[in-house]
Amino acid sequence: MSPTTLALIVAIVLVLVGLLVAFLGWRRRRSMRTVLRGLSLGLLSAGLWVTGILSLLADAARGIWHWVRDQHLDTRMWTGIGIAAAGVVVFLISSALEPVGRAEGRRRREALLAPQSAQQPVTGAAATAPSGQAAGPGAGLDDPDEDAEITAILKNHGIH
């Protein structure tokens, strides 16, 4: 079978599939989005056939098939196949995750950019320092509550 004939068959099948998707999408959901996607699939495949790009893709598919058939799989090839498979798996996992909307993205960005002091209330000796004393780095070093608080913060950050 010549690449032109194969491209024509593929184009006809894709146009029919696109029209079927459009019809079923309208019939089941009354969704204009599904109708337009089905029509776009049909129009795209017809356009690719008319321009000859579908024939080029058929030639490329045939070339890839010959390459795979004649290839001897060594360690380097298996490594490449494993890397490509990992890429496909990561893509599928990312597609399964729920997308983040604008409001959620804005909330996450604001939470990230907010200063740390605004997120954590001041407690311990720094909060109870008399007005005459500065609650600076050297204030209240002998206070066991502050030492416990500092130790807890360091543990939260992985510093023991």
From TrEMBL:
Transmembrane segments: 6-26, 38-58, 78-100
Positions of the UniProt region annotated as Disordered: 113-147
Keywords: Membrane, Transmembrane, Transmembrane helix
Bias (Low complexity) ranges: 123-136
Protein name per its UniProtKB record: Uncharacterized protein
Source organism (scientific name): Propionibacterium freudenreichii subsp. shermanii (strain ATCC 9614 / DSM 4902 / CIP 103027 / NCIMB 8099 / CIRM-BIA1)
